[in-house]
Amino acid sequence: MADKTLDNLFHDTLRDIYYAERKILKSLPKMARAAQAPALKAAFEKHKEQTEGQIERLQQVFEIIGKAPRGKTCDAIEGILAEGDEIIEEYKDSPALDAGLLAAAQAVEHYEITRYGTLKRWAQVMGLQDAVKLLDETLQEESQTDEDLTTIADAAVNAEALSSAA
């Protein structure tokens, strides 16, 4: 095990988030179609465009470390996305659907935030300044998306889900 270094861990984690981003990209149109609130639909569509750019930045990071951009199955994102699919099925046509979709989307964002934050710090330690900039740009986007989703939830979605039950 002595040959396992931070370089290896960085590459493995990069492969993990690359896989995750590609899975997220495929799931965002489904989430946008399921969303009832126009603001939530728009947020999913905007994040789809951002995710395409994030994948491109990850490909640049792979290039920086001299590795081919290849994903590695990420069980965490598989589980988070499966929960989102369950919400779509179980709450379809329900006033609580959008609140559930928001919660699922924020679980995705929080996962991404932890991965990008870790990768950025590791890149700093490894002296990969170009990678730090790319990873930080994505980290900032993910954090902003999380804040935007909270704003949408607080503006109406959560209250509408609650008031419809009364």
Task: Please render the helix and strand layout as text.
Blueprint: H1 6-34, H2 38-64, H3 75-91, H4 97-126, H5 129-163
Helix pairs in contact: 1-2, 1-3, 1-4, 2-5, 3-4, 4-5
What does this entry look like structurally?
- Helix content is 83%, strand content 0%.
- It has 166 residues and is mainly α.
- It is elongated, with a radius of gyration of 17 Å.
- 33% of the residues are buried.
- The model has no long low-confidence stretch (mean pLDDT 93).
Overall number of strands? 0
Q: How many whole angstroms does the radius of gyration measure?
A: 17 Å
Structural class: mainly alpha
Low-confidence stretches: none
Compute the separation of the termini in Å. Answer: 58 Å
Summed over residues and divided by their number, the pLDDT gives a mean of 93
Residue fraction in strands? under 5%
Please report the number of helical segments.
5
